[in-house]
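Standup notes
- HV: blocked on the assembly model, inputs below
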Amino acid sequence: MTSADAALTQTAGVTVRQPSALMRRVTTLVALSMVLIGLLLLYLLANATNSGEMYEQNYAQLFIINLVVAGVLAVLIAWAAWRLYQRMRQGRFGSRLLLKIATIFALVGVAPGLLIYVVSYQFVSRSIETWFDVKVEGALDAGLSLGRVTLDTLSNDLASKARLAADQLSDNQQMVQESALLRLMEQIGASDAAVWSASGKLLASAGSIGVQLSPDKPSSTQLRAAKTERSYAWVDGLEDAAMGKAARPSIKALVPIPNASLGLASEQRFLLVQRILPANFVANALAVDSANREYQERALGRSGLQRMYIGTLTLSLFLAVFGAILLAIVLGNQIARPLLVLTEGVSQVAAGDLTPKFALQSKDELGGLTRAFASMTQQLADARQTVQTSIVKLDAARARLQTILDNLTSGVLVLNAAGAVRSVNPGAARILQQDAAQLQGSRIADLPGLEAFGQGIAQQFDDFLQGSSEGGNDHWQQSFELGVASVPAGSMADRSRMLVARGAILPDASRLVVFDDISEIVSAQRARAWGEVARRLAHEIKNPLTPIQLSAERLERRLTGKLEAAEQQVLAKSVKTIVEQVDAMKRLVNDFRDYARLPAAQLEAVDLNELVDGVLHLYESSPIPVRLELEADIPAVLGDPQQLRQVLHNLLQNGLDATTLKLEEAVHSPNGLAADATELVVRTQFTASSGRVRLIVLDQGGGFPEHILKRAFEPYVTTKRSGTGLGLAVVKKIADDHGGRIEISNRMMGASVLGAQVSLSLGCVANVKHLENTISGPT
Amino acid sequence: MASAIARAQTQAEVTLLRAERSVNEVFVSANVNFELPAVVEEALLKGVPMFFLLEAELYQDRWYWYDKRIASAQRQLRLAYQPLTRRWRVNPSAGEGGDNTQGLSLNRSFDTLAEALSAVRQVSQWKVADLSETDLTAKIKLQLRFRLDLSQLPRPFQIGAIGQSEWDIQGLARTALRGEGTR
């Protein structure tokens, strides 16, 4: 108990139980002491029924103390039962088990006690009854009667003899001689004889009376009785003998002595004779008497005796039962405690509470069980802690992975075996230009614009699965072109995209597709390749051009005047053609060279309106008028003025060429453009929200054919018969160098094309500065 | 026990109580009237002796405190029936009430119960105490208690008699002590 209590105080979670444990101990002590007191008293009580002076005096007190102890025990039991009932009503844990154990123990204790009680009860009541027998009583009565009759007979005999003697004495007048008395004594066999006067005076005596100092004087009643009945006999000294005193019981007879002298007023005299009773008779009579008295005493005390025995028995039963029940409760508590601790712990664990459990320190198996359970719970708690830690780690890892996926420019799709999208990252949604939520769960081939892509992926996976079963590669890679056929003609932003996709099978049989938009890369590669071609071509072509031109001019100079007029004319014309074509070729080669060797842009603040004004001076004599729509007060843009002029030249030249072509076609068609209505528009706009300035050139030419529109910025793509296809390529290159954005589109009115529009947006000085700062900041 | 069942007792009435002081000695005379219950008589006739106890206590008045007991005396009388001789006998029990020679003769036998009972009932000139050390002017009260002494009965008998009102004969009387001057 003590070590368990120490454990109780040590374990913080169960300190609340300490008061009740203390109380239980106190209760146990009280109950045990009560039982002990009860047993001791019961022993005394049982002993008290045997003879013993001390117990006789204290029987009542013992009985009462026992009753009190029994009452205290009963109260204790009632209290315990009430507490148990309360606990059961509150549904307190373990009360049923406690009740069960206590009931079993109490039954074990009470049942034998009850059995013994019943048997003893019967035994006591029967055996006491058997002590008292009618025959014995009758025999005792008879013995008494016998004694009585004998005594009566002896008395009557003595009385009649005394009467005779008195008659003899009456002859002697007045004086009675002692000798006469002695003779008379011998006659009737008496031990004493005396003559008394009516007034109580001893007149004469013989035998032992005479020597007595104060002989027993007959009482007046005796004298009166003797006078009226002529004789009176009684037994004297028997009571004293019965009380154990040294007495000699005797029969005494008193008779009046008849008065011989009639009429003489002399005093009445009485003769008193005494005969000693035989000693053996007295002894027998007294034995019968005492036996009878004892028997009668017991017979009278029979009910008391029975009550005493049964009371003692009943009391002992109560004490035993109460003690048994109390012990049962205490022992039940003792035994149930580990079980309660255990089951309470189990229910707590079942409810998910894995806090350290209280373990009993006792050495028995139940204590060991509680300890084992406590350590098991501890291990469980540790395991759960580990699991939670790893879950947290896993979550963190997943979040990290997700962040990486979300910020990946590559698209990542996970498809199930049927081809439906299971997960998608923002990069994929951006590249495929779909809503991520819309992508989720749908088949790619079902989405508008992605039919070919989806089918391609499915086809690749099918092939891959077939191949991998034959021990092929662990992934496939394939490039796709998106939006070639389906995207309608529109802005440059809708242009087709080149994707490189790579697929693999995930461990759970779902399909992983990772793809990149390589359109930009392809475009850049193409541009660089063309640049290289242009540089080499220009170098190779430019070298022979000057000798050709010089040779042609020398031919003309030498032959001029030596030929016929007709031939001279042919010569001049041919030379002119040669020189012109060579110039054109030079220009072409220079363009190529310019494109390839476009120097790096020297960025500075440029007032775009001023720049446009300057360039436009050169076009004042142009057959088609150029109109300016310049927004006032636009901020300065960051750019290379030389290159921006080149851009404007190229764009204006393209617009003029396109418009001229359109006009020439219009000459041959009835509803063509009127020459005077055509114009080019150069416009500048400032968009405050984006902080950029747009330079827009509008023409009224034939616009771009659809296939050109998507690749207009690639070199050698042209709508002009004599164009090099480098104009827009150079513009694009410059725009890229400036960090600008170039858009190209057709101006539509209904289904008919009004013309083309090219817009270049450039960053303002402030914005670009800011941008540069942010870019250069980390590096 | 006796006090616990005093309510159900057979009332014995103490009459003609007189306590007299003659110089230093106190004498008590009284009559105790009671009817012998049938069960007691039956027991007597079967030879079971009965003991009657007479207790006298003297108290001196004390105005500041409860009365002080200054003397007490006990007299026990044994009443028995001898079936052999069919005679009744009254005698003082051995060792009880040392000086009870006065007013009571030793070993008296009677032919009838009534005669024997009258001997039990009467108390005359019983010397209760010797008050040589007590102030003559002190107020003294006497309390006389009479009862059937069950404790002298055989034990099983006692247990049977406990709680039975018929066995409980009690009487109580008080009187002031009369000195010589008042006489």
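- HV (later): unblocked. Helices of chain B lie at 38-45, 113-121, 155-161. The CA atoms of residues 12 and 35 of chain B lie 8 Å apart.
- Next: hand off to the docking folks.
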